[in-house]
Design goal:
Blueprint: H1 2-17, E1 26-27, E2 31-32, E3 35-36, H2 44-47, E4 52-55, E5 69-72, E6 78-84, E7 94-99, E8 105-106, H3 116-122, E9 125-130, E10 134-139, E11 144-149, H4 155-158, E12 178-182
Parallel strand pairs: 1-8
Antiparallel strand pairs: 2-3, 4-5, 5-6, 6-7, 7-12, 9-10, 10-11, 11-12
């Protein structure tokens, strides 16, 4: 009887340990590596145990300031910037993630070293916003938006915030400055 229970326990342990490991640099609609849309701030220490976590305290909870959390590799390379949905609340979930490291990749292969041409080829662009120094390209498939520096645009589009910028106005070679995933 004990041998049977021990054998069943061993087999079940082996089967559960064979689960596929999550790629720490994959980006999908509900996760970025081990970080999910339901991850709480208090769980970050365990998820990024091998990395450095820097919590910026910009204000207090009464002012409603969101306090961003920076994730660095131990060598000092900036990986991510996380914005919790609630300030100074360890049970708050992450509202958006800004991706800096080029190893993070969407299922369609888009990284921070991709170009606008890559985005256009892999995604349907839903909106383009013209800001002071950047343009922001929104795609709906995975709650992602890409920021491109206006220096990548033709001269006549760089300085006028009132101009409507279309996908045809952006060179395919325009580089991504950074991109974000919002939950």
């Amino acid at each position: 009887m004990r041998k049977t229970i021990f054998t069943l326990l061993t087999v079940s342990l082996l089967l559960t340990s064979c689960d596929q490991e999550v790629n720490p640099f994959s980006i999908s609609k509900q996760n970025i590596g081990l970080l999910t849309d339901s991850t709480q701030v208090k769980d970050l220490e365990a998820i990024y145990a091998k990395d450095s976590i820097v919590k910026k305290i910009a204000g207090d909870e009464f002012l409603g300031n969101i306090n961003d959390i920076l994730i660095f590799e131990k060598g000092g390379k900036k990986l991510l910037e996380l914005s919790p949905k609630e300030a100074l609340d360890s049970t708050a979930t992450i509202g958006s993630v800004r991706i800096y490291d080029s190893r993070y990749k969407t299922k369609t292969g888009i990284t921070t070293i991709s170009t606008f041409g890559d985005i256009k080829a892999q995604h349907k662009i839903s909106n383009i916003e013209n800001t002071l120094r950047n343009i922001v390209v929104f795609v709906n498939e995975n709650n992602t938006f890409f920021t491109i520096d206006k220096e990548e645009l033709p001269g006549e589009l760089r300085f006028d915030m009132s101009k409507k910028i279309e996908a045809a106005n952006i060179p395919d070679t325009a580089k991504i400055k950074y991109f974000m995933v919002g939950w």
